[in-house]
Specification:
Elements lengths: L8 H11 L4 H27 L10 H9 L2
Helix pairs in contact: 1-2
Length: 71
């Protein structure tokens, strides 16, 4: 998709140098994908804050290790 946007030249140069993209399009694509990845992680962390993971009371790490070895 073609998009026309007015973005400060210094910001574009910083994005290009930070992402290592070959051109502006690739650099912005890398930056946007990274931004979305971080937002998704933030959402997961927020969910974990609201509802932390809980292990079963009888959970033992060596039991899980033995179970994995049987595979």
């Amino acid at each position: 998709m073609k998009v026309t946007a007015i973005i400060d030249d210094s910001l574009i140069e910083e994005v290009k140098s930070t992402t290592g993209g070959k051109n502006i399009t690739e650099s912005i694509t890398i930056a946007l994908k990274e931004y979305l990845r971080m937002k998704k992680l933030d959402k997961v962390f927020e969910e974990l804050d609201r509802e932390p993971l809980q292990f079963n009371e009888d959970f033992k790490p060596y039991g899980l290790r033995n179970q994995n070895r049987k595979r």
